[in-house]
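ingest -> validate -> predict -> emit
validate: passed (alphabet ok, no gaps, 156 aa)
predict: started
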Amino acid sequence: MVRHAGEVIRSSGDAWVEGPDGARYWGRFGAAGLLAVSPSFEVLLQHRAAWSHFGGTWGMPGGARHEHESAVDAAVREATEEAGVPATLLTVRFTSVLDLGYWTYTTVVADAAERFAPIISDPESIALRWVAVGDVDDLPLHPRFAEAWPVLRDRL
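emit:
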């Protein structure tokens, strides 16, 4: 079977997009994640469940965008669903977009007005933790987050 860049692959009702090199990306309409920053200059990170894509690594809460959903709305929705992030405490600082031409991932960086207690509310997380910005590199990071982190950190 010949596959084309950006082809949607469905399995069990979920949708992945496959790139020309065979790499698969979650979310037919792209994906987004939220990097919440506390007043104490910490970021909220999610320790991903072992069964998940790049399980056992640390990254930010996020997931697939819905059709016609903005990246900011998707990131906040996913962070609320996965980590109990109170949207009312957030002020968006900036966004950063990874655009592969056939799929996008948007990192939404937002200041939290106060340091809240995150809540594990779905099986994708084995831990949620506020991590000092200077300590993030000490964790085993999701590969794509590890690639993006130096630029994100510098922009903070």
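The longest strand covers residues 90-99.
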